[in-house]
């Protein structure tokens, strides 16, 4: 392992055709799907009808400077929208699985996921109560015109001075991602003086990878251009993604760097991002197709999500870095990749290889490995356990590296309490499908 790598040990449907463009990330060609086209089109129409009804609840996308106006839907509307989206995406996913003929494997995975969620439910209920009832959470702020172009903001209680900001893209295997999945991380960071913006985006079959990257980029643009109106510091914006969200966020970052170095017009600049945190992500999709297939994400389904085999290079940040100019690489911020050594959903070697490629290209990059941690340990089980949170501590150590006052405040912050019994956490770790 190169000397620059840091090792940390811890205890323990169809999208619209995209027009040809100038960026290497654009002009995708759709693959020949191994499913009935009519089923996917019917799913797309169903989602389109559902989203058209939600437009009545929109708020203005531009907050008035200097105010912390709520700009969120009522509790009833939020719950109704979340339930509707969850039902629709779940129904469409089952329809796609039937078309693909991969019933048993996915049904067993869904059963494991259900048991996993039940075991952690005491913690999820407490986090959900915070999400819906805390005055520090601004839910469903609209950042664009597409379905699910919304984000949640987690605001620290003490915002007497502009706060650092983390724009976070949640995971979910490109199929079940949702902005509320970032509530636990948002709460932990907000308690320590960081504004967190959890960006929602279209999942498959509502959209394919190009739509997801476009949504994430538009959400990042909203944060960069509007966060001052919510008490955020526009000069301290950090980008973070987890699992599939780490891949999507990295694609958005590289796409923006390529556009910017090529002189194309942009709505936000890579130079506005102080650092990128990639948690448990995959960055060379070419090398992960077979791995995902063995793990239950069927090859034909995954290639449909990624817009065909011919698009894998375009949506592999590692490959894009290898083919990018020095000007593009020079625009990139510090890149910090974090991964558990016992992650079987996406092996830690995915982050190790990406760091090597970045360093060879001249970018600032480092790796933090969490010994013995799985795909969900770092992001879910450890925070629900209470006490020290290695992930949060590592993120804060970089954000507050040059701010002694902020470091003192973090040191005085109360220790998070346990939300789930230890036996439930251990059993959930064994059952987890991730």
Automatic annotation (TrEMBL):
EC number from the UniProt entry: 3.1.1.n2
Stored InterPro entries: AB_hydrolase_fold (IPR029058), BD-FAE-like_dom (IPR049492), Carboxylesterase_B_AS (IPR019826), GDXG_lipolytic_enzyme (IPR050300)
Top-level taxon in the UniProt lineage: Eukaryota
GO molecular function per UniProt: hydrolase activity
Ranges where the BD-FAE-like domain occurs: 151-356
Membrane topology listed for this record: Multi-pass membrane protein
Keywords: Endoplasmic reticulum, Golgi apparatus, Hydrolase, Membrane, Transmembrane, Transmembrane helix
Family the UniProt entry places it in: Belongs to the AB hydrolase superfamily. Isoprenylcysteine methylesterase family.
Role, per record: Catalyzes the demethylation of isoprenylcysteine methylesters.
Protein name: protein-S-isoprenylcysteine alpha-carbonyl methylesterase
Natural source organism: Panicum virgatum (Blackwell switchgrass)
């Amino acid at each position: 392992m190169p000397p620059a790598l840091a090792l940390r040990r811890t205890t323990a449907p169809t999208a619209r055709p995209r027009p040809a463009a100038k960026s290497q990330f654009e002009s995708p060609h759709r693959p020949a799907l191994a499913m009935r086209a009519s089923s996917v089109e019917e799913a797309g129409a169903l989602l389109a009808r559902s989203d058209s009804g939600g437009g009545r609840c929109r708020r203005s996308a531009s907050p008035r400077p200097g105010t912390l106006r709520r700009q969120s839907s009522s509790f009833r509307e939020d719950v109704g929208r979340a339930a509707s989206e969850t039902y629709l995406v779940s129904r469409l996913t089952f329809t796609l699985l039937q078309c693909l003929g991969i019933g048993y494997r996915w049904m067993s995975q869904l059963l494991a996921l259900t048991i996993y969620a039940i075991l952690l439910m005491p913690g999820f209920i407490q986090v959900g109560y915070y999400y819906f009832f805390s005055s520090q959470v601004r839910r469903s702020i609209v950042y664009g015109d597409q379905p699910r172009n919304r984000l949640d903001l987690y605001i620290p209680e003490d915002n007497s001075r502009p706060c650092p900001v983390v724009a976070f893209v949640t995971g979910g295997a490109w199929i079940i991602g949702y902005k509320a999945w970032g509530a636990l991380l948002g709460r932990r960071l907000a308690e320590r003086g960081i504004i967190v913006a959890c960006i929602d985006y279209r999942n498959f079959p509502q959209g394919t990878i190009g739509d997801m990257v476009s949504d994430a980029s538009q959400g990042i643009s909203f944060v960069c251009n509007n966060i001052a109106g919510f008490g955020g510091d526009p000069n301290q914006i950090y980008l973070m993604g987890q699992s599939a969200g780490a891949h999507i966020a990295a694609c958005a970052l590289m796409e923006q760097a390529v556009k910017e170095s090529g002189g194309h017009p942009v709505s936000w600049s890579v130079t506005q991002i102080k650092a990128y945190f990639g948690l448990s992500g995959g960055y060379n999709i070419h090398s992960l197709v077979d791995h995902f297939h063995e793990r239950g994400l069927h090859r034909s389904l995954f290639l449909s999500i990624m817009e065909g085999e011919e698009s894998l290079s375009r949506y592999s940040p590692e490959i894009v870095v290898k083919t990018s100019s020095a000007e593009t690489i020079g625009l990139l911020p510090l890149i910090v990749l974090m991964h558990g050594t016992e992650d079987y959903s996406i092996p830690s070697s995915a982050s190790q290889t990406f760091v090597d490629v970045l360093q060879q290209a001249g970018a600032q990059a480092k790796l933090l490995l969490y010994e013995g941690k799985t795909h969900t340990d770092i992001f879910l089980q450890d925070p629900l356990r209470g006490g020290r949170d290695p992930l949060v501590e590592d993120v804060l150590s970089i954000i507050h590296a040059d701010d002694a006052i902020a470091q003192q405040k973090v040191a005085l912050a109360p220790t998070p309490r346990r939300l789930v019994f230890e036996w439930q956490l251990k059993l959930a770790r064994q059952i987890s499908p991730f």
